[in-house]
Amino acid sequence: MNKLYKLLMKNKSLNIQLAVSISLYACLTVATLFILMRFFAASFTINHYLEKYLVYVHKDFAQNISQSIKQLNMRSINLTTDNRIYSILTNSNLSHEEKLNQSKDILKIYLDDSFFIENILITTKYGEIFEYSKNPQLTFENGDTSFINKSNSYDIFLDKHCRTDSNGRKYIVFGKKFKNFNTTYDLGYLEMYVPEDYIYSIYKNSVLEESETFLAYDNYIISHADKSYLGSSMYIADILLTPDKISKSSDGKYMINIHHFDIAAMPDFAMVSIISKKAIYSQVNAFSRDSVIFLIISLSLFLLIAFFCFRNLPSSITNLSKKLTEYGHSGKINFEEPISTEITALEEGFKNMTVEIDELI
Q1: 187 φ, ψ to 5°?
Q2: pLDDT at position 291, please?
Q3: Distances (CA, A) of 124 to 133, 186, 187
Q4: CB 229, CB 212: distance < 8 Å
Q5: Element (H, E) at 157
Q6: Burial classification of residue 190, based on how many CB atoms lie within 10 Å of its CB (0-12 exposed, 13-18 middle, 19 or more buried)
Q7: pLDDT one-digit tens code per residue, 49-60
Q8: 320 near 342, Cβ under 8 Å?
Q9: What are phi and psi of 329, to 5 degrees?
Q10: Region of 151 on the Ramachandran plot (φ > 0 left; ψ -120 to 50 alpha; else beta)
């Protein structure tokens, strides 16, 4: 028995094989868990930070558009308190053309002072229309003043329909009552044309790949990368939307977010983001594919190593079992294999035991 113990301690192939098998299993398990954790962590991170990113985009645009509206409001206050305009446009001794020509120089100052107002339209309560443009060669589409709240003399309102100039350029129109708050004289209505592409330039760099972000007012699209959509009505079922949260489309292919701006006179002014899940998750999906390939290669490699490490173990045990059976039947046994593993060491011990038994008999 001492000899067997010495052989086992000297040749530790079973211990090595056991250690290798445990190591391979541990490596495979850890690699699998690591990849799965990375995948779910990436998915969670995308959902978490995408929402934060959209909130940032919306807040950034809200600040810019609020600043633009403040500037429009300041321009309109300056205009509506300029008594020169009233004295010219209400002078019954002047013809329409004379009124227009005499007031042009005054309006030109206001237009030149603003880098984003391209056209100003004044409609008097007597039905006269006066148009002033930075580019006199252009003609502008005129709408109606129904979008302006007649009972509100101070706020600026937004027309849900874009207007077009003779070159096909689109404009977003802001309007208000042309009323002098110093004298309370009501001349009519003031409309200011702002290029849609200027508004779009404020947020275009924030639009994600294969996604759409656009502005809508009263469910009409007023700013979009594709100008053919301007003026189109928008329908997104309320059931799909959670205010200022990311919702999924019914087919699961898109994520939708709608943010209403906190502007009292424009309650239905909103930024809408429709985000392609395919584009957002493309990197995660690529990582997932690479992970599956890595797992398959790792599993194949581990199985190959295991096969070469343990391939002789079953045959050694089978040979020992045959020799035990052979000795039980015939009392003789042939030990020819060299001692190389614990199994053959065990065979050697069994051989010595049979010799001792035979001597005792």
Answers
A1: -85, -35
A2: 67
A3: 18, 9, 5
A4: no
A5: strand 157-158
A6: buried
A7: 666 776 777 777
A8: no
A9: -85, -40
A10: alpha
Question: Do the Cβ atoms of 246 and 231 come closer than 8 Å?
Answer: no
* Rounded-to-integer distance, Cα 114 and Cα 79, Å: 12
What's the angle, vertex CA 277, arms to CA 276 and CA 278, rounded to 5?
Answer: 90
> By CB neighbour count within 10 A (0-12 exposed, 13-18 middle, 19+ buried), where does 273 fall?
buried
Distance CA 58, CA 79 (A): 31
What residues does 192 pair with on adjacent strands? Answer: 120, 174
What does the buried/exposed string (b/e) look like for 80-95 if buried means 16 or more CB atoms within 10 Å of the residue's CB?
A: bebeebbebbeeeeee
pLDDT for res 233? 87
- Mean local confidence (pLDDT), 210-231: 89
pLDDT reported for residue 341: 56
Per-residue model confidence (pLDDT) at position 343: 58
Q: What's the one-letter identity of residue 319?
A: N
Q: Are strands 186-195 and 254-260 parallel, antiparallel or unpaired?
A: unpaired
Q: How far is the C-alpha of 292 from the C-alpha of 284, rounded, in Å? A: 12
The 10 Å CB-count burial string (b at 16+, else e) for 309-345 is eeeeeeebeeeeeebeeebeeeeebeeeeebebbbbb
Q: What does the pLDDT look like over 5-41, one tens digit per residue? A: 444 444 455 556 566 666 666 666 766 676 666 666 6
Question: Given a cut of 50, is residue 335 above it in pLDDT?
Answer: yes
Tokens, residue 252? 């699961």
The mean pLDDT of 136-158, rounded to a whole number, is 86
Q: For the chain, what's the residue count? A: 361
Burial class (CB in 10 A: 0-12, 13-18, 19+), 277: middle
Run of H or E including 46: helix 13-80
